[in-house]
Amino acid sequence: MEDYKNIMIFGEMDGEGLSSVTAQLMRIGKRLSEELSQELSLVFLGEEALKGTEAGYGYGADKVYMGADPLLQNYMTDACLQAMEQIVGELKPSIVLFGQNDMGLDLAPRLAFRLKTGVTLDCVDLKLDSEKGLLEQVKPVFGGKAHGHFCNTEGRPQIASVREGAFDPAEYDASLKKEVIAFDLSLDPSGVRTRFVKKEKDESMELALKLASANVVVCGGRGLKKKEGMDLIKETADLLGGAIAGTRPAVDNGWVPSSLQVGLTGKKVNPQVYIAVGISGALQHMAGCSKSKLIVAINSDESAPIFKLSHVGVIGDYKGVLESFNEEVKRIKQEG
Fold first, then answer.
1. Helix (H) or strand (E) holding 105
2. Closest CA to 55 of 19, 91, 100
3. Is it true that 7-191 and 203-335 share their CATH fold?
4. Does domain 7-191 bear CATH number 3.40.50.620?
5. Which of 17-26, 50-59, 166-175 has the weakest average pLDDT?
6. Pairing of strands 243-246, 119-123
7. What is the pLDDT of residues 281-301, one digit of tens each?
8. In the predicted model, is pLDDT for residue 50 greater than 70?
9. Which residues make Cβ contacts (< 8 Å) with residue 315, sequence separation at least 6?
10. Does position 211 have pLDDT exceeding 80, yes or no?
11. DSSP conformation class of 261
12. C-alpha span between 27 and 11 (Å, rounded)
């Protein structure tokens, strides 16, 4: 295990810039690299990712790599897995971090299996025993009722995926610029068991991406009673520059798409402000939002469990509360 050192982050792009989760991984990655006195590297796959990847240096990377191959033109699990296996096999990082999103959930466990090492998914904190170089990986367990602490004492590299919002983004320094290092790959087409057909725009996925990085989330539950309640919630979210979401009952009733479900079996969000509208506060739902900095609950039932879990509680009919709130926000914006 002495051959393994340095921190590696699997990077993703959002347009021509780093994705929000990658910027957050850079902060924790930089902290770990400083504590270990080791290098921090950032890896991107696919030539289309080349534009803007040099920004990784501005976020604190010591080295930025770009692995290119025709098979990486569009995301396919088998091709990306081969690429990461080759890159990790040559660079031998001690720690590899992914974002807790569709791509990270797809690649991290498969890479760990290929490398015969361990992986911890959905981490909300990472701690380090600098003397032993062991990464303590902290994640919610039992539906968010507790935190489990995990450590890979034998396998290398130590692999983890990190929940978006668990860390603030790294600060960006535009003066830090270097060349992106090209990494030569040799991918086997016969090992790719799927083929890319076409891309289709999915508006619900765009909303899901907005939800993942929003500072304000307004979520509706069973208490809305009808789909029109989501229109009011959307107005509130738009006024605050936030995103909308729903509970399992809201999804089951067709009020919001499943990609916007927050909870144990849905998305995990960590916004600055989480406004829960008509939500009772079941643990299955709170497991998806308990890390929010400020939870505001609006419910007509004063005995709803969510009032014990929220920072601010408003007892009353959500329609009257939100309509008054929206009017006040509009007034403040007009005066400002």
1. helix 102-114
2. 19
3. yes
4. yes
5. 50-59
6. unpaired
7. 998 899 888 889 999 999 999
8. no
9. 299, 300, 301, 302, 307
10. yes
11. B
12. 13
- Residue matched to tokens 């600055």: 272
State residue 334's pLDDT score. Answer: 87
Backbone angles phi, psi at 115, to 5 degrees: -90, 0
Average pLDDT taken over every residue of the chain: 90
Give the start-to-end residue ranges of the domains of the chain.
7-191, 203-335
| 127-171 residue pLDDT tens | 988 677 789 999 988 877 788 999 998 889 999 999 887 888 899
Q: Two tokens at 56?
A: 């990784």
User: 121: closest CA among 98, 152, 96?
Assistant: 98
CA quadruple 86, 23, 6, 135: dihedral positive or negative? negative
HEC profile of 184-232 = ECCCCHHHCCCCCCCCCCCHHHHHHHHHHHCCEEEEECHHHCCCHHHHH
State whether residue 180 is helix, strand or coil.
coil
Please enumerate in sequence order all residues whose Cβ is within 8 A of that of 87, keeping only pairs 6 or more positions apart, or say none. 43, 65, 67, 183, 185
User: Quick one: DSSP state of residue 263?
Assistant: S
Task: Match 């270990």 to its residue by tokens.
Answer: 36
Q: Helices 203-213 & 20-36, crossing angle to 10 degrees? A: 40
DSSP β-ladder status, 17-18 and 158-162: unpaired
Residue 122: strand, helix, or coil: strand
Size (the chain), residues: 336
Fold of 203-335: Rossmann fold (3.40.50)
Q: Which amino acid is at 84?
A: M
* Block residue for tokens 């191959």: 69
What percent of the chain has pLDDT above 90? 60
Kindly compute the dihedral angle of the four CA atoms of residues 55, 58, 63, 64, in this order, to the nearest 10 degrees. Answer: -10
Q: Give the span between the Cα atoms of 137 and 264, in whole angstroms.
A: 19
